[in-house]
Specification:
Number of domains of chain A: 2
Largest interface: A-B, 26 and 25 residues
Structural class of chain B: alpha+beta
Number of helices of chain B: 9
Number of helices of chain A: 9
Mean pLDDT of chain B: 94
Strand order of the largest sheet of chain A: 14-13-10-6-5-18-19-20
Shape of chain A: globular
Helix content of chain A: 25-40%
Number of strands of chain B: 20
Low-confidence stretches of chain A: none
Number of strands of chain A: 20
Radius of gyration of chain B: 19 Å
Oligomer: heterodimer
Distance between the termini of chain A: 36 Å
Shape of chain B: globular
Structural class of chain A: alpha+beta
Radius of gyration of chain A: 19 Å
Chain lengths: 347, 345
């Protein structure tokens, strides 16, 4: 019997291997996955790697209790590091992602040539939706433009119909990343479709109302979760049952950084929908997103800020103001230049 | 229908033989023609034992041993295996005696490597799950000590085999006693292997079971004439031609040299075309050609581009004038008695 999107999977995998990672014959390509990962996605990617002459090595492992540093003690870390420091390319399909863990930091420090693409929790339908039908070359042009605009901004405000009203300053020493999906240069890369950066943490004030998802720990929210921040620290969380669980979860680590933002993002992937899948939700067109907990070295060089774990919170239909100039209104692009560029992407 | 028996066999492997401890790093490697049911069942047993498990799948190389190296992500494999406590090798195209293998074993002196190349569900059930390990240990030690004390051997068969050779106490007798809790490379129980005095090996060997790699079960017996330990002639049918071409294709003199002989006595083993099982069939004898492991010829063995094993069934073995095996059955009184207890009841 034919499997879900069996034909389209091949195109999605080819897009990653040929266009985004640009695998060369003979390259060692490690795919990591845990027992929650989608085997069809992993194997489709391995087939595409092999087809272009790469050497795929698919490593499966048990699923840790949480992502980031929660994987370190649980997984056979030394053996994983041993494989990854000798790889040319690595795609992480783990549901409880290794990014932000000690394993990940070690591999980044010891394998400067590694091209890493983080695709945690990637499932068949998301895989096909975001890779098989996306023109990454065109999307990159758009995303890079938004990145340039944010890089040139000192003060940012985000609001939403659900009640988000948060503002902060940018820190010129913190890189602003255009997550355009390309992983053809050394470093850690992610799914295309968003701009990510760490603001000046102490300057973050206001309320973030999550009406999308809390991932990967909780999934799509049943009712909005309002997160109040003063000088970059959560002061209270209100909402329903999930708000209580979310706050309890963060405080259970008994670690100050788990109550502080790690990064913000704005999402611009033309093919996304809200599914509870971490990568896709973060990139919903016109949405914004906040991470809490550990901060990667790429966001705040050189050392990042370690914390026991990490969680991402998605807000829909965001209005974004860059130094007072509004570029999106309730998720719709209104900046004239960006509006014109978005048409190329079908938006 | 084999689910429960397979899981029990894997539990025997993990708990009884490997004695896996909590938090040990347990790596399984497999290629695209390995038996997934076995990979999954061993994974389950290892997880229940509290091991930290990694299962690494890779493409299937065109060759085995060193011939496999160019096809594999060698450095990443070595890096991973160098940090493991246990390595179960289920690759059908085995890594044993490859560059990956040698580097791993050099880097990782604590590694327990279980070479289960090509093992499928039936092999696990037959060769691991069906064995009486107390009787097996007793039998293996007895046979090992007898071989160690022997001088001259002659192997014959109804198909015309007639090969003679001398043994030397300088060459270790390699055998597995069923406990895999010590570092090094381990295999199924039920086989003894050793390297005779190379120059003393003369005569005709007739293979009628299987040949690895690539050929598998043979339909037409293959006769190999050996002079002073080296292959002089290969005769038989189409498979003989294929085998000769394979050996000579490496263009390396050691590929035409005897690497070891061996006797099989695993009561669950049957001829299935998987060498790790075929060479353990009760009453069979195996001859290896090509690279020689350091365990058989210390300190370094003999390097060659690859290694082949070929199996003869129903061998008659005469040792220093005494009959040990007749047409594949142990007849020497002590061995004959013990051999009846090897299968778990």
């Amino acid at each position: 019997m034919i499997k879900l999107y069996e034909f389209e999977m091949a195109r999605a995998a080819d897009e990653i291997v040929r266009e985004l990672v640009k695998v060369k014959p003979g390259e060692t390509f490690v795919l990591t996955a845990d027992t929650g990962s989608d085997e069809d996605v992993v194997n489709a990617t391995a087939r595409a790697i092999y087809a272009v002459g790469g050497k795929p090595m698919v490593i499966w492992m048990a699923t840790p209790p949480g992502p980031g540093r929660m994987v370190d003690a649980f997984l056979p870390s030394e053996a994983l590091k041993g494989a990854l420091v000798k790889a040319n390319c690595w795609i992480e399909f783990n549901t409880q992602y290794i990014l932000y863990s000690e394993i990940s930091e070690y591999v980044q420090r010891n394998n400067k040539e590694l091209r890493t693409l983080c695709l945690p929790c990637m499932h068949t339908d998301v895989f096909v939706r975001l890779f098989a039908h996306t023109d990454h070359a065109k999307l990159r042009v758009y995303l890079d433009k938004v990145r340039d605009m944010i890089e040139g901004t000192k003060h940012v405000r985000m609001t939403s119909p659900a009640g988000t009203d948060v503002e902060f300053d940018n820190n010129p020493k913190h890189p602003v990343y255009s997550r355009n999906g390309y992983a053809d240069t050394p470093g850690t890369h992610q799914l295309a479709g968003m701009i990510a950066w760490a603001p000046e943490l102490d300057s973050i004030n206001g309320v973030i109302v999550t009406d999308g998802s809390l991932v990967p720990q909780f999934g799509v929210v049943e009712e909005p979760v309002s997160i109040y921040l003063e000088k970059g620290v959560i002061t209270k969380v209100t909402g329903g049952r999930q708000a209580t669980e979310f706050e309890q979860y963060l405080r259970s680590f008994n670690h100050p950084q788990m109550l502080r933002p790690a990064h913000t993002c704005v999402g611009f992937h033309p093919n996304t929908k809200l599914t509870g899948q971490i990568g896709e939700d973060e990139r919903i067109w016109g949405g914004s997103q906040w991470g809490f907990g550990s901060i990667g070295t790429h966001l705040i060089p050189p050392d990042g800020i370690p914390a026991p774990s990490h969680i991402d919170c998605t807000c829909l239909n965001t209005s974004v103001y860059l130094d007072g100039k509004q570029i999106t209104d309730k998720g719709v692009v209104i900046d004239p230049l960006l509006k014109e560029m978005a048409k190329v992407l079908g938006k | 229908m084999y689910d429960q028996a397979l899981q029990e066999a894997c539990d025997v492997l993990v708990n009884h033989l490997l004695k896996v401890q909590k938090d040990e790093i347990f790596v399984i490697t497999a290629d695209m023609i390995a038996d997934r049911a076995v990979v999954d069942a061993i994974s389950g047993s290892a997880s229940r034992a509290g091991a930290k498990l990694l299962v690494a799948w890779m493409n299937t190389p065109d060759g085995v041993s060193e011939a496999a190296d160019p096809f594999l992500p060698g450095q990443a494999l070595v890096g991973m295996l160098s940090a493991a406590d246990i390595w179960i090798e289920l690759n059908c195209k085995w890594l044993l005696y490859s560059d990956v293998y040698y580097k791993t074993m050099k880097n990782n002196k604590k590694l327990r490597h279980m070479c289960l190349t090509g093992v499928d569900t039936e092999s696990m059930i037959g060769c691991v799950g069906s064995v009486d390990y107390d009787a097996m240990r007793e039998f293996t030690i007895l046979l090992r000590d007898k071989i160690k004390a022997s001088s001259e051997m002659r192997m014959t068969s109804a198909l015309g085999e007639d090969v003679c050779f001398k043994n030397t106490p300088d060459h270790p007798i390699s055998c597995k006693l069923g406990v895999v809790d010590k570092p090094g490379t381990h295999l199924f129980v039920g086989q003894i292997g050793w390297m005779p005095v190379l120059e003393s090996i003369n005569g005709k060997i007739v293979f009628d079971s299987s040949i690895a790699p690539d050929i598998g079960i043979i339909e037409t017996p293959i006769t190999i004439k050996v002079k002073n330990g080296h292959i002089e002639e290969i005769h038989g049918g189409r498979e003989a031609e294929t085998y000769e071409a394979w050996l000579k294709g490496f263009n390396h003199p050691k590929m035409l040299s005897v690497a070891h002989t061996g006797i099989g006595f695993n009561p669950g083993a049957a001829v299935v075309g998987s060498i790790i099982q075929d060479q353990r069939v009760l009453g069979s004898t195996t001859w290896g050609f090509g690279s020689v492991g350091a365990g058989l010829l210390p300190p370094d063995g003999i390097k060659a581009p690859s290694h082949s094993d070929a199996v003869c069934l129903n061998t008659t073995l005469e040792v220093d004038g005494t009959l040990w095996m007749k047409d594949g059955q142990f007849v020497e009184p002590d061995l004959a008695l013990l051999s009846k207890r090897l299968k778990k009841r």
